[in-house]
Write a structure and sequence with these properties.
There is one protein chain. The protein has a six-stranded mixed β-sheet. The chain has a five-stranded parallel β-sheet with strand order 2-1-3-4-5, with helices on both faces. It has a two-stranded antiparallel sheet with strand order 7-8. It has 14 helices and 13 strands. By secondary structure, it is an alpha/beta fold.
């Protein structure tokens, strides 16, 4: 029997990604959608401005929008949230207090120690605290990391498995304009330009990976303070796909062949179980010197694979620097796709109350 699911913030760009992924999902039956209260009662197909390519799925276009209130979703098994930051901060806790299970990619409460911040290929075990969460909060809240933190965190997983936590990591992001939302940047500001600062993004690229690589302790998540990331974030005139240039510093000599093998062979829990949204290869290693590229590689693995290229080892005094370039689709792997995969992982671990 399928799980009945809903999407909050269904008319936005990321909300549309949820709709597209869930409309044909083998485990989930998309039965409810919500946007602003003013749109309640309207047909989804009449009010959504579809911007992600293709057309609105026919079976979803007829759904009447619900108010974003817990009482409207009391029979829903899983609620997916693509709400804007300010709105999610108010609404999501109400849904959780009402006993609902919420999987969200919005930023509020990502760093709350009681809330799992999950990339299933890295820290599926953090979902174990949801049973305790339900007993304390009434419902469940699971978060997806910031889109750039997601790409970065997944990109360094084989290194950490092979070599341990680096002394420190230097990272520079080249982030697509879709990360600011469909109307987030004036066209004159980004055309023929690079914007060398994105508010709050550099802090997220330090704090969120620390939590992702942390551990469960006393039914909370204890961050890994030994992971240090010095990040610079920029906005570039690319539609979709965040690129991150990563330099990981180690205090010993590193064998490039071992590093390449670690990336080539990397698989994890979602791949072992063949979860519906999991890509066959969560990391795709490119050997060509001019890859990855957003236009060519962002949709690999249905947008769920992170591409890795330009792997090099540089000698430094007393050690080595592993250099690489990572690329991931910011609204799929970095948002809706990862969140749906979180829900699949949650179910596969037997944590659903059904």
């Amino acid at each position: 029997m399928k799980y009945d699911v809903a999407v909050l913030g269904a008319t936005g760009m990321v909300g549309q990604r949820y709709v597209k992924i869930l409309s044909k999902h083998p485990w989930f039956n998309l039965v409810a959608l919500s946007a602003s209260p003013q749109k309640a009662g309207a047909r989804y197909g009449d009010v959504v401005s579809w911007v992600i390519g293709g057309t609105v799925p026919e079976e979803v276009a007829e759904i009447r929008l619900s108010k974003p209130e817990p009482s409207e979703f009391k029979d829903i098994d899983i609620v997916f949230s693509a709400l804007p930051t300010d709105i999610s901060r108010e609404i999501e806790p109400k849904f959780v207090s009402a006993g609902l299970t919420v999987f969200s990619d919005s930023s509020p409460m990502r760093l709350d120690p009681r809330v799992p911040l999950v990339i299933p290929e890295i820290n599926a075990d953090h979902l174990s605290i949801t049973a305790f969460q339900r007993s304390v909060l009434g419902g469940v809240l699971v978060k997806t990391p910031n889109c750039t933190s997601n790409v970065l965190s997944l990109a360094i997983k084989p290194l950490i498995d092979l070599l341990g936590i680096p002394e420190h990591i230097d990272a520079v992001s080249l982030q697509a304009i879709s990360g600011a939302g469909y109307s987030g940047l004036p066209s004159m500001a980004i055309q023929d330009n690079v914007i060398p600062y994105i508010k709050n993004e550099e802090e997220k690229m330090l704090e969120e990976p620390r939590k992702i690589y942390g551990r469960v302790s006393n039914m909370t998540i204890e961050p890994n303070e030994s992971l240090y990331i010095d990040a610079t974030t920029t906005r570039v005139p690319v539609l979709d796909g965040h690129t991150v240039v990563i330099h990981a510093h180690y205090s010993w000599s590193v064998d490039i062949n071992e590093v390449l093998k670690a990336y080539e062979n990397f698989r994890s829990y979602p791949q072992e179980l063949r979860l519906p949204t999991a890509p066959e290869k969560p990391l795709i290693l490119h050997r060509a010197v001019d890859r990855p590229q957003p236009r060519l590689d962002r949709d690999l693995g249905n947008g769920m694979s992170v591409s890795i290229g330009r792997i090099r080892i540089a000698a430094k005094r007393g050690g080595s620097v592993v250099k690489l370039v990572a690329l991931g689709h910011n609204t799929i792997r970095g948002a809706a796709g990862n969140t749906v995969l979180n829900a699949e992982t949650y179910i596969s671990l037997g944590l659903s109350k059904r």
